[in-house]
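Shipment paperwork, digital attachment
Item: protein structure file
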Amino acid sequence: MSSSKRFAGKVILVTGASSGIGEFVAKELALDGAHVILAARRLEKLQAIQHTIEAGHGLASTVALDVLDFESVRRVLQEIVATHGRLDGAFNNAGGAGQSGTLLELETAEFKRIFELNFYGTYHCMKAELEIMTQQKFGSIAAQVNNLSMFAKLIMPLQAAYCASKHALLALQNSAAAEAAASGVRVNSVSPGFCRPSESLDGYLQQHPDVESTLASPLVHPSGAIVHASDVYASVALLLDGKTSGAMTGADLPVTGGHGIPLLSLG
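Attachment content:
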């Protein structure tokens, strides 16, 4: 790898790397010189992505990771450091949605499942990463609040559990940022809006083709388009790179194309 590349010599973990934003970000990090640790439950998909990265002369390794099992997460992180000698950054991307419904309609078990995946899954990763990074005295965690994570600050009808888990995750990130700052570790987040590539979004739009024109409306997306994963990567890379983000910690960068900005319609 050329030393001129942005993340040359850096070891960066990407969770939820088997598809969507996670896969895109992992590939871009490798192009920018990082040794990317691809983590997800499906090893076979990760291995295919690893081969693609290596075919382009990038560096990648794969690890099976269940973010719901903290001891497993801790063990995997320790093995990464034992193998590579360090952990420079992490992009905590694993997460997901769940069943739609009002607070009264949603079963308690489903509410807890969504919280386990979105909140506790990221909490487990952040805790294990911080154990390592605070001892190293360096590192940067870009803890993504996942697809549609503008709902860490907004509310979406029929998604009480999802929105609550994202709001809680943003508070966790800010607490972690304050606690880790003295050790030289920065903790930030990106909050994507509707974003492609996304299997769930594409599937929904195939079933409801009329919605796509609505999403592209300037009243919904002032930019006139749904966000692409390349837009998300630009923010993730900024946060992971200490040269460009400096003392930024506890920051949340909205990557929404303007979606969520209150607009007054005079039409």
